[in-house]
Amino acid sequence: MGTAIPLIVFTVLWGGVGIGLPFVVPKGPNRGIIQVILMLTAATCWLFWLCCYLAQLNPLIGPKLSQHAILLMAREWGNEIKP
């Protein structure tokens, strides 16, 4: 449930921008263009946020540590590794 709350909140936020705001654009010669801009902005911002959020859930690249650093951390944390 911890990962669902931000997903729901930001989906509702960007959904409101992309679905709700185009209805309140004042009438004028550029109304259609402004509506499309709002929808595309909401879609791309939501997609960018989603990619960044999901990349943090399962990072592909971890830290590169030397063998000495790994052995030192294991000893300090109480899990000494015997070579």
Descriptive account of the structure:
By secondary structure, the chain is mostly helical. It has one domain (4-76). It is 65% helix and 0% strand. The radius of gyration is 23 Å and the shape is rod-shaped.
Distance separating the two termini:
41 Å
What gyration radius follows from the Cα positions, in whole Å?
A: 23 Å
Number of DSSP E strands? 0
Helix content: 55-70%
Order of helices and strands: HHH
* Helix vs. strand class: mainly alpha
Largest beta sheet, briefly?
Answer: none
- The total count of helices amounts to 3
- The proportion of residues in beta strands is under 5%
Mean pLDDT: 90
Lay out the secondary structure.
Elements: H1 4-20, H2 31-57, H3 67-76
Descriptors:
mainly alpha; ATPase_V0-cplx_e1/e2_su; hydrogen ion transport; rod-shaped; proton-transporting ATPase activity, rotational mechanism; 83 residues; ATPase_V0-cplx_e1/e2_su_met; membrane
